[in-house]
């Protein structure tokens, strides 16, 4: 390890450090779950209509 005066030599690219942490945690049997995402829907009717419209467009063979 370099002396404290050479602190710039300690730099490790962030992604390399993150992958190494992930590998070591995985070896120890520690998993990191994906963050939970909540979606609040104010009106399901608009979404249901958009899905139905999309399905009808996809069912039309001339619409490719």
Question: Which helices and strands, and how do they pair?
Answer:
Blueprint lengths: L13 H14 L16 H16 L5
Give the domain tally. Answer: 1
Uncertain residue segments: none
Give the overall form: elongated
For the report, how would you describe the main beta sheet?
none
Whole-number mean pLDDT? 78
Structure classification = mainly alpha
SS strand fraction: under 5%
Helix percentage range: 40-55%
How many individual helices? 2
Spatial separation of the terminal alpha carbons = 61 Å
Gyration radius, rounded: 25 Å
In total, the number of strands is 0
N-to-C order of helices and strands:
HH
Folded structure, characterized:
The chain is mainly α and 64 residues long. The protein has one domain. The protein has 2 helices and no strands. The N and C termini lie far apart (61 Å). The model has no long low-confidence stretch (mean pLDDT 78).
Summarize the structure.
This protein is mainly alpha-helical. 47% of the residues lie in helices and 0% in strands. It has one domain.
């Amino acid at each position: 390890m370099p002396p404290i005066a050479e602190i710039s030599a300690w730099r490790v690219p962030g992604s390399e450090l993150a992958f190494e942490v992930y590998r070591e945690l995985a070896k120890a049997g520690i998993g990191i779950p994906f963050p939970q995402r909540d979606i609040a829907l104010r009106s399901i009717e608009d979404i249901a209509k958009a899905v139905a419209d999309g399905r009808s467009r996809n069912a039309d063979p001339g619409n490719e």
